[in-house]
Amino acid sequence: MRALVAGATGATGRRIVAELLRREMPVRAGVRDLAKGRQMLPPSVELVAIDVTEPRSLRAAVADCTVLLCATGARPSWNVTEPWAVDCCGTQNLVDVAKVAGIDHFVLVSSLCVSQLFHPLNLFWFILYWKKQAELYLQNSGLNYTIVRPGGLLNDPIPGGLVIQGADTLFEGRIPRQQVARVCVEALYQPAARQKIVEIITRPEQPESPPEVWFSQVPVASHQ
Ligand SMILES: NC(=O)c1ccc[n+]([C@@H]2O[C@H](COP(=O)([O-])OP(=O)(O)OC[C@H]3O[C@@H](n4cnc5c(N)ncnc54)[C@H](OP(=O)(O)O)[C@@H]3O)[C@@H](O)[C@H]2O)c1
């Protein structure tokens, strides 16, 4: 496997890069700003300049890669079109180039509650709505995929075990970004992760479970 990580300078993306390297997978980091990428990411990582809103920048980036992990997300902004451009069209652009390149597995970091139109997070220019449209596009693309919907993201670990369930079953909770990165990377190695939407949080009372059972307990996603 060789991985392209889109959003590799993000707080989750850079943890995905680190988790892939821990497993000795060759990684190409897709970053908007090469200087920032060089400063943030380990020197062994190959960097490539991408902007997901510019399809031309993505074609060369994906070449020779076999798996693609997308951890992009609109940065907070007054630009009302940003979540549409990044979280919807940008992800759709990645799906399109992944199909042409014959990517074997596409892992998308999405969010809990994307199916709830009246969720307060949609006050940020309908970001959940646009993430859901990107999910549907990926689901209908014919690619092998795993959609990972985390709860509120934390930079530091918290005690507790991973709760992993199917689509539209969890509505609140938090999870360290490191745990999200582990789930995203583990999905590449588990056949049971394919064609699934997994919702993830951590709970203090939840016992630790081995990665081998994480995905097998979640049903295959329905196509909408
Ligand atoms: N925050 C939460 O509690 C929460 C909860 C659930 C789900 N999520 C979702 O989880 C994902 C990861 O969140 P995070 O907080 O770790 O992300 P983040 O730190 O905000 O990073 C976002 C990444 O997306 C990149 N990006 C933005 N626009 C781009 C574009 N046009 N082309 C290429 N890359 C672009 C950013 O690049 P630059 O570094 O160049 O800006 C950055 O690498 C996001 O989709 C987020 O919406 C977040």
Give a verbal description of the structure.
The protein has 224 residues and is α/β, with parallel strands linked by helices. It has a single domain, classed as NAD(P)-binding Rossmann-like Domain (Rossmann fold, 3-Layer(aba) Sandwich). Helix content is 33%, strand content 21%. It contains 7 helices and 10 strands. It has an 8-stranded mixed sheet with strand order 3-2-1-4-5-6-10-8, sandwiched between helices. Strands 7-9 form a two-stranded parallel sheet. Helix 1 (13-22) links the parallel strand 1 (3-6) and strand 2. Helix 1 (13-22) crosses helix 6 and helix 4 (82-101) runs parallel beside helix 5. The radius of gyration is 16 Å and the shape is globular. 45% of the residues are buried. The mean pLDDT is 97. The structure holds NADP nicotinamide-adenine-dinucleotide phosphate (NAP). NADP nicotinamide-adenine-dinucleotide phosphate (NAP) binds at residues 7, 9-13, 32-33, 50-53, 71-73, 75, 86, 90, 109, 111, 150, 152-153, 177.
